[in-house]
Amino acid sequence: MMGAILILIFFSFTTLISPSYGYDPLDPQSNITIKWDLLQSNEARNDVTVSIFNFQSYRHIDEPGWRLSWAWPADEVIWGMWGAEATEQGNCSAFQASGSIPHCCEKRPVIVDLLPGAPYNQQTKNCCKGGLLTSMSQDPTKSASTFQMNVGGVINYTGFAMPVNFSLGVPGYTCGDPFEVPPSRYGETPPLLQQKHDPNEEPAQVVICSKHMCPIRIHWHVKQSYTEYWRVKITITNLNVMRNYSQWNMVVLHPNLQSVTQVFSFNYKPLPQYGTINDTGMLWGVQYYNDMLLQAGKNGNAQTEMLLHKDPGTFTFKEGWAFPRRIMFNGDECVMPPPDDYPTLPNTASTTTTTLTILFFSFLFLITVMF
């Protein structure tokens, strides 16, 4: 068996995340690994298995899924494929006289995963997921995908090049029709904005018009402060009219996360990347309950509450700072309000003042920006 492994940083293939993101200190070992195994070879055909592994802690590949591409060094063609398919067959006219047409004759084939429920004779082990690869922390059993193919021609591995392209949706957002969204919830009824697109490009996704123009809104509400504990409520709202977010996750960086006592209705896992420093955690929905954020509307949100123990050595409510330092949704950075906009508690506050200020915390919104 002969193999070649290519390790690619996740940020190099996403269309929604800024290309300036080359390294993430919260996930320093993250990568996407592509493994190419040549099972058997002769002068005419090569049986190949290609495996994709998502070794990222909290970023996953969402719909429409991964798209894998490479450049053949010579005149190789794909005769058969199982567990995936090429998006274009290409020009196979040279084979018409033989009566047998290859699956793909493209010099640079683009391969996509098959959908669940594909015919059994088209499947292979660990295939047919419709593109979604979850993060290793969220679900290791669903963090890999595999397909097989039969390649015609002698593959020259010295000149073989395999540039990889993954897609996480279509770039750009535009306002859309806010159907089923009560006007009282978002103020005045958001307008409908028409935006023209290049006919050769995929259309932008549609979100509810708002000042921030972002598809996801995260609301951090300090709900109650007890003597030894405090409670925070988190609400994630989907403002994307045309999209459901499946198996979403949210990463929070907060100094008091090392003292999480209980999390209600969400899954929670700490992400201690640097030894004893445990100020980062990942939350995601419970399967078949709230692991999908449905299209914008009454069901387009998910909520949880966390109970955290107060540790004077690492965290207090001094100056009223009860908010996270960073928040990411599906790996995308959230826009944090300027520090001057945060409500604060005075150092010596009465019970009444404290209660009113904590209630005011509920007006803080953290907006996710898709680059």
TrEMBL record:
Keywords, ordered alphabetically: Glycoprotein, GPI-anchor, Lipoprotein, Membrane, Signal, Transmembrane, Transmembrane helix
Location relative to the cell: Cell membrane
Membrane-related topology note: Lipid-anchor; GPI-anchor
InterPro entries, alphabetized: COB_C (IPR056900), COBRA_pln (IPR006918)
Residues in COBRA C-terminal domain copies: 201-343
The keyword Transmembrane helix is assigned to this record: yes
Transmembrane segments: 353-370
Main location per the UniProt record: membrane
N-terminal signal peptide: 1-22
Family per similarity comment: Belongs to the COBRA family.
Protein name per Swiss-Prot or TrEMBL: COBRA C-terminal domain-containing protein
Taxonomic source organism: Xanthoceras sorbifolium
Upper classification of the organism: Eukaryota, Viridiplantae, Streptophyta, Embryophyta, Tracheophyta
